[in-house]
Amino acid sequence: MESNYEDVDIVIVGAGLAGLTTALALHRLGLRSLVLESSESLRVTGFALTLWTNAWRALDAVGIGNSLRQRSTQMKGFKIASPDTGLFTSETALDKDGKFEGYESRCVRRKDLLETLVNELPPGAIRYSSKVATIDELGRFKLVHLADGSILKTKVVIGCDGVNSVVAKWLGLGTPVSVGRSAIRGLVEFPNGSGFEPMFHVKFGGGVRFGFLPIDDKTVYWFCTFTPSQVPTYEEDWPENPIKMKQFVMSRINNMPEEAQSVVEKTPLNSISCAQLKFRLPWNVLFSNIVKNNVCVAGDALHPMTPDIGQGGCSSLEDSVVLGRCLGEAFLKKSNEEEDEFERIEKGLEKYTKDRRWRSFRLISVAYCVGFIQESKGKIMTFLRKVWFSSYTANAFLKMAKFDCGDLVL
What positions does the domain FAD-binding occupy (predicted)? Predict the structure, then answer.
């Protein structure tokens, strides 16, 4: 029955940010992998994401950083609106104390990022309409069964299949839980230029976190996180009803300057989305299997987190470079001839685990706490938010981004 299996050295489940970057990292090292994507084509939903210093180091490691820099603007700081008046009353430079020389923060279209990754991969690296049904074992190999009945026999399975990961479930990782908040996001084009400074324009308080930032001279990305249970008008059909989403956000920013309101007002309905925010319980990352023999997870399959420190996508890029390097050593460096390939793979993935477990724990925990402080109601929280944001927020963002995943040199 061996002829019924298609042999592939490395199978990556999911053609999202983590999956494509991992495939590219392996490709740069001369290793071929197969990316399985359940959709019929590349999924480019999500509009945009903020990439910090650690993400740009990872993108440079796989060789696409400079091309993306040409399409994005470097952020300089925060413009903070008063929760009472809605006016931008304070401004904070990102690196006001000079502690993070060389920091980098830019907002990038998700579509641009994913298409750049795809264009760097060899033909046939991605197989669309390939949904994973189950994973079985055949000795030390893994058998990946697809919904269409085909079977892949592989030495390594990497789950980059998001929050509802099939691979994470196979490893026994707990299901990500809701944080009780949702996020509305949008992308808008200003044909004659937006005129906004390269700053994070933000407003917190009253149970809502709203902000926007330019991607380039003409494109602006915005977000609004909120707690549905605290919104009397909230209805279950909101994720499918951009009109209601838009009306809600406008009602929460009606005291902001006209140019800030125009960001939401001019956004086309097909460029607005809403999603429930979920995260993996931090102790689940610490005490559960994120690697088992020759199977592992990366990206949102490993560490789904709230977007409050902008590290979800950044940490996925970190995962990919570290994972690529660890597997590269396993497949390409045969320093101990007594070890067989599977032993080297297991050791490589154990190394990946040590590198990513505590980093993931910390990012998930900090993101959750930051979101709780930024969005909570009450006089005490309002006071803490004012003191904390002006004194610590910029440093907190930069400190979490001050991480170097290293390069791909073995």
Answer: 7-331
Identify which of 173, 139, 164, 136 has the alpha carbon closest to the alpha carbon of residue 11.
Answer: 136
Share of the chain above pLDDT 70, in %: 93
Cβ atoms within 10 A of the Cβ of 214, count?
Answer: 25
pLDDT band at 338 (very low <50, low <70, confident <90, very high): low
Distance of CA 182 to the CA centre of its chain: 16
At 204, give phi and psi (nearest 5°).
-120, 160
Distance of CA 263 to the CA centre of its chain: 23
| Selection from 12, 271, 289, 7 nearest residue 153 by Cα | 7
Residue among 230, 231, 200 nearest 308 (CA): 200
Indicate whether this model's pTM tops 0.90: yes
| pLDDT (tens digit per residue) in 348-380 | 999 999 999 999 999 999 999 888 776 655 565
66 sits in which H/E element:
helix 65-69
Phi, psi of 224 (to 5 degrees): -145, 115
